[in-house]
Design a protein that fits this description.
This protein is of the alpha+beta class. It has nine helices and eleven strands. The relative contact order is 0.15.
Length: 269
């Protein structure tokens, strides 16, 4: 476990203002920032927590937006057991503390860390290709949707990234980090003028998206997800690939999606 975790992770204090926390997310690209008091674990702030801060609440401190970690690990914990606990809890990270009785923070372990360990240690997934693990019912958005609508869709679905569609073809993807980096602060949406002022998805989305097909080997999909540091990857048919970047498609027929967690499950079931 100690070889997998990231020691001395970036943290903020319970008194750090939300605007400062947001700037760290924006500049560093973290998915989770741990909150401490005198290096003792107090909680964590995620990208989702940051997106839920409206423009009228940005002066609150980290203690007001942090969540309690769903899983807390110790250095001697078995990695497969930890992976199962993280997956069952529906989270993507676990802070590592000295012991159950000592909350002194020593590191953090993420789904990506564990997946990397399994991929490059010779473990074989249950499913050779993505056909057996792809999720076919995909939550999407359109290129001309307002960011405010995407926020709501992410809140309702719990997904951190959505494929972007145009004329029934996937042309891009938008994530929580894309929205955070766009500096588009969430409004309260009490008035029509606020809704009208929301920018559209096409201004923020990443395009062309990195894609895979149902026949892509599960291990290869895991490697792509780690290489591009993405949480989920669209599964497509009939892709029109970009010549200089053969993993990216200008457009394609969307048939499903696969997340890091889907791939990790295939290694630990």
């Amino acid at each position: 476990m100690e070889k997998v975790m990231t020691p001395d992770p970036v943290t903020v204090s319970v008194d750090t203002h939300a605007t400062k926390v947001r700037s760290i997310f924006r500049e560093e690209g973290f998915r989770t920032i741990l909150v401490v008091s005198e290096n003792r674990l107090q909680g964590a702030v995620t990208r989702g927590d940051m997106m839920n801060i409206s423009s009228t609440k940005s002066n609150i401190a980290a203690r007001g937006i942090m969540e309690k970690p769903r899983v807390i690990a110790t250095p001697d914990m078995d990695l497969i057991h930890l992976a199962q606990e993280i997956m069952k809890a529906g989270t993507v990270y676990a802070p590592v503390v000295e012991s159950p009785d000592n909350m002194h923070l020593v590191g953090i372990v993420t789904v990506a860390d564990i997946l990397r360990k399994f991929l490059y240690n010779g473990l074989q997934p249950d499913h050779e290709t993505l056909e057996g693990i792809v999720t076919s019912n995909v939550v999407t958005c359109n290129y001309n949707d307002l960011i405010s609508h995407v926020w709501n869709r992410m809140d309702e679905s719990g997904y951190s990234g959505l494929p972007v569609m145009k004329d029934d073809k996937i042309i891009g993807i938008i994530t929580r980090m894309d929205i955070i980096r766009s500096r588009h602060v969430r409004m309260g949406f009490e008035s029509d003028s606020e809704m009208q002022g929301s920018i559209k998805v096409e201004k923020v989305m990443k395009t062309p998206p990195v894609v895979v097909t149902p026949q892509t080997p599960t291990s290869e999909a895991g490697e792509i997800i780690l290489e591009y540091d993405i949480g989920r990857i669209p599964v497509v048919e009939n892709p029109v690939y970009v010549k200089r970047e053969p993993r990216r498609a200008k457009e394609a027929d969307l048939v499903g999606i696969v997340s890091r967690e889907d791939i990790l499950w295939s290694y630990i079931r």
